Amino acid sequence: MRWNYREGVGNVREIAPGAVHVPGWLSMEEQQELVRSCRAWATGPVPMRHTVLPRGGVMSVQTVCVGWHWQSYRYTRTADDVNGRVVAEFPEWMAELGRRALKAAYMRDHDDYRPDTALINFYDGQARMGMHQDKDERSGAPVVSLSIGDACVFRFGNTETRGRPYTDIGLDSGDLFVFGGPSRFAYHGVPKVFPGTGDPDTGLASGRLNITMRVTGLSG
């Protein structure tokens, strides 16, 4: 797959040390291709679902994974909480996408970045994501986050607590957000989605897709 990235689009903004927002990074064509890929992964081998948490709560977002399966704060190769099948492979074109994303955010090459999993979350108009840390990986490599579809409020906090101080950022379709370095384990969440703000030309008629690439640090 060939990608034509728009380096330096928009007003690149460092939210916190290592946390960078790059508005409008993905072109419409690139968003369309990602929507097509996510739609294919959502049908299996492990389908998109609402994750059930250890205490019985159910996440309002729907999730599908590639590379490794995330379930209740751990990664496995098989989706034992869904259908027991091995998740779809993490494609090399997505790893290249991650490396290019880091270059756009940090203004330098990251040829050693080797993401091996992606969590794809779908938000309808009512879905939310509480403040949490991405800390189930055995790696401190940056997280690359891409948004497609409806706009949202993205709340980016600190590494110590779910509460203040935090910064609320508007993420629109095509936006890139990267967090690594001192901000790698910052709490973050999505308190609000704005239904009807996405462009149907992306191939997503409604809702928001968020694709986050990570390095698990796992083997096998």
UniProtKB/TrEMBL annotation:
UniProt domain Fe2OG dioxygenase: residue ranges: 114-217
InterPro entries xref list: Alkb, AlkB-like, AlkB-like_sf, Oxoglu/Fe-dep_dioxygenase_dom
Metal-binding found in the keyword field: yes
Pfam families for the chain: 2OG-FeII_Oxy_2
GO cellular component, one term: cytoplasm
Cofactor: Fe(2+)
Keywords recorded for this protein, A-Z: Dioxygenase, Iron, Metal-binding, Oxidoreductase
Chain positions recorded as Fe cation binding sites: H132, D134, H188
Details of cofactor binding: Binds 1 Fe(2+) ion per subunit.
PROSITE patterns: FE2OG_OXY (PS51471)
Biological-process GO terms, alphabetical: oxidative RNA demethylation
A GO MF label: broad specificity oxidative DNA demethylase activity
Protein name: Alkylated DNA repair protein
Origin species: Sinosporangium siamense
